[in-house]
Amino acid sequence: MTDAVITESSVGNTQAERTALSDQRMFEVAIELVNERGTAKTTLKDIGEGAGYSRGLASYRFGSKDGLWMELFARFDDIWKAHLSQYLAGKQGLAALEAAIQAQRDIFTRESGYLRAMYILWYESLGRESGIRASLAGHHVIYRRDVQQWIEQGQAAGEIRADVDPAHFATGYCSTMFGTIYQWVVAPDAIDLEAFFEHFAATVTVAITQQRGD
User: Which domain holds residue 18?
Assistant: First the structure.
């Protein structure tokens, strides 16, 4: 954060560049404040001033806190998709599933502040009807669909047991991931993430590839 108020007419930048810069600064402050005090005590005024702009800029730009939260959600989703795609490149089936587990492990290091803020936002949105809650439900469908598709691909390739139910596995997989992140948000030092993901990846591989009785 900066004490000086930054104007939108900074010399040397185009209007689009100035807008992008001010948005980025406000997003960064919003993430800091959500992590410090939660969403209820984070105001658009505090976000604008904390980023070094006028108190009304965040309100003008996003309209409401829900508008800002939706933009943060969309940006985090873009970051996650770009991150995941690097791990999934050229992979299907079991290899894709194993790569996704690695991607989930590494996002904790790459985007720890953003990840924590988003889960605080998501959990605090569950008590009321909101655009965030509806969007989150839609994304959960996509996450489960992707995992289900990897299992089906692995079964078609003969890598994964035919008696593994793809839909049920996808629900369990996503529940484990979301639950792990929830525990990390509550108490970051209580979980050895590196050891957990190594154990989880090995356990999943054995569970879905070894024939019963092996």
Answer: 1-63
Cα dihedral 25, 26, 31, 37 sign: positive
Q: What is the distance between the alpha carbons of residues 108 and 124, in angstroms, rounded to a whole number?
A: 20
Could you tell me the pTM of the whole model? 0.83
> Is the residue at 141 inside a domain?
yes
Q: Are residues 96 and 16 in the same domain?
A: no
149-202 residue pLDDT tens: 999 999 999 999 999 999 999 999 999 999 999 999 999 999 999 999 999 999
What would the two tokens of residue 214 be? 């092996």
Q: Which residue has the tokens 């490149």?
A: 89
Query: What residue has token string 């996450």?
Result: 143
Instruction: State how far the Cα of 115 lies from the Cα of 31, in Å rounded to an integer.
Output: 9
H-helix or E-strand spanning residue 40: none
151-185 burial code (b ≥16 CB/10 A, e <16):
bbbbbeeebbeeeeebeebbeebbebbeebbeebb
Number of domains in the chain: 2
